[in-house]
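FW: tagging you since you asked about this chain on Friday. Here's the raw sequence from the shared folder, copied in full. Didn't touch anything.
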Amino acid sequence: MSEANQPNRDQAALWNDAGGPIWVEMQEVLDGMLAPLEAPLLEEAFPGEGGRVLDIGCGAGATALLMARRLGPAGHCLGVDISGPLVAAARARAAAEGLASAAFVQADAQTHGFEPDSFDAVISRLGVMFFEDPSAAFANIRRATRRNAKLVFVAWRSPAENPFMTTAARAAAPFLPNLPAPAPDAPGQFAFADRDRVQRILDASGWTDVDIRPIDAPSGVAEKDLLTYVTKLGPVGLALRDVDEPTRARTAEAVRAAFDSYIRDGAARFTAACWLVSARATPRGDRG
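HL: got it, structure written out here
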């Protein structure tokens, strides 16, 4: 297959160029912001001490490390991410902790040749919305699981239910006329906003007992970190890389002011409106 036809080529370029290093830089801020999503994810998916778990889109390793600690020394959690910088950061964190039950690999989970029948559970914290062909990706992941293994992931609900996440783009739009508007269902943050679409994807890829529940997690970003967060990440962060300094300054001022209504007690506080999705792998005899 030529590089031009490689699945998820654009995502690989994004997360290995601009996106990955910025997420590494912002690791502590992002881990703090997303921490409220971890407990429901891990509680739902935990297969018991000594189990084997696959973490898809593991980023800098926060959820994989948490799961590895819970699994104990006899267990194993493998984190997979398309971003080399993020995988390197995750490996460094595991090494610093001496956590041998956590391992990380840079790979595209849509196409990676996982060892079949290897995992008791699959988890993802906001890491599964970026596949060009999500049905193919979830079918590939399913083949890596054992009989009746559990899949549990968290994904964002709609932009309308997550106004905090779209405030920067709305405020920046007058200054950045070429700011892209994501197409519905395109790979990205809100690709799984449509509950029915998530159901169809999992049905088509061989998962059963699908359960899709809304969760609303209180979250926040420290006020001191807010401007860096909103001007370095997401589409606004990417667009600001290519503008002159006066435009950058005007945009940053407008974007920061747009978040004033979220500030309380030293932090920008918001509700993370997500889906908590769980499913079971089809019995081995029924697998394609």
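FW: The longest strand covers residues 207-222.
HL: agreed, and The beta strands are 52-56, 76-81, 102-106, 119-125, 145-156, 207-222, 263-264, 267-281.
FW: great, closing this out.
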